[in-house]
Amino acid sequence: MADAIDSLTKLQASSEDYDVLYQDDIVLVVNKPAKLLTVPGRHPDNHDCLISRVQREFLTASIVHRLDYDTSGIVIIPLTKRALSDISKQFQARTVQKHYIALVAGLVKANSQQIDLALAADMANRPCYKVCQLEGKPSTTDVKVLSRDSTKQQTRLQLSPITGRSHQLRVHMQAIGHPIVGDTLYAPDAVAAASSRLLLHAEQIQFLHPLTAQVLTITAPAAF
């Protein structure tokens, strides 16, 4: 999921720092806090971001994929050009497996389902995206119910994006009538105000180590 926030908007960077989940000579895996850009925005006050913080300690660190400003969770950070190239090819081939945890409004009926709705930029409401079967790019998400809270009328989901479109999980959840709690872009006011942050977290990622080809499975449980 790439940063799709308007890069000219001033954003408050979280004071919470990233956590290192895995580290060796060529690759780093970290847990990004919510409300922190992955890379610098064009606004002069948006230079504080994940990669700028990581590069203070790891000078050769680079970005191969991103999480939205509002989303917390796992980010792979290559430390060499070889690692960057190799992991980039894995993402392009869609062999990197990942899933997110989300808390959504309402009780999702199906225990599992696949959402296949094409997405396009909503030019009238930037930086939002919308479902558009005519001009949108193919976008697929696997959905699994983890638990339902009938008192709060909320459902905890495991979301596995097959594709990696901007705001894919947020728009897909809105499209099926279950927006993510704390989503100020896509949820109704009451749902957006129910949390001080977007309740979406990249919990697990699996990829091949660029040097050894060993399968690495990294997990960072959601804080909500």
Q: Approximately how much helix is present in the residues?
A: 10-25%
Whole-number mean pLDDT:
94
Biggest sheet descriptor: 9 strands, mixed
Relevant CATH superfamily of one domain: Pseudouridine synthase
Which word captures the global form?
Answer: globular
The CATH topology of one domain: Pseudouridine synthase
In terms of structural class, how would the helical and strand content be classed?
alpha+beta
Poorly predicted parts: 1-6
What portion of residues belong to β-strands? 25-35%
Which key terms come to mind for this protein?
9-stranded mixed beta sheet; alpha+beta; Pseudouridine synthase; disordered N terminus; 224 residues; 11 strands; two-stranded antiparallel sheet; single chain
Helices and strands in order, then pairings?
Layout: E1 19-23, E2 27-32, H1 50-55, E3 72-78, H2 81-92, E4 97-105, E5 112-116, E6 119-121, E7 129-131, E8 140-149, E9 154-161, H3 168-175, H4 189-192, E10 200-208, E11 215-219
Parallel strand pairs: 3-10
Antiparallel strand pairs: 1-2, 2-3, 4-9, 4-10, 5-8, 6-7, 8-9, 10-11
GO biological process, one term: tRNA processing
Domain Pseudouridine synthase RsuA/RluA-like: 27-175
Organism: Rheinheimera salexigens
Structure description:
Belongs to the pseudouridine synthase RluA family. The protein has helices at residues 50-55, 81-92, 168-175, 189-192, and strands spanning 19-23, 27-32, 72-78, 97-105, 112-116, 119-121, 129-131, 140-149, 154-161, 200-208, 215-219. The chain has 224 residues and is α+β, with helices and mostly antiparallel strands. It starts with 18 loop residues before the first strand and ends in a 5-residue tail after the last strand.
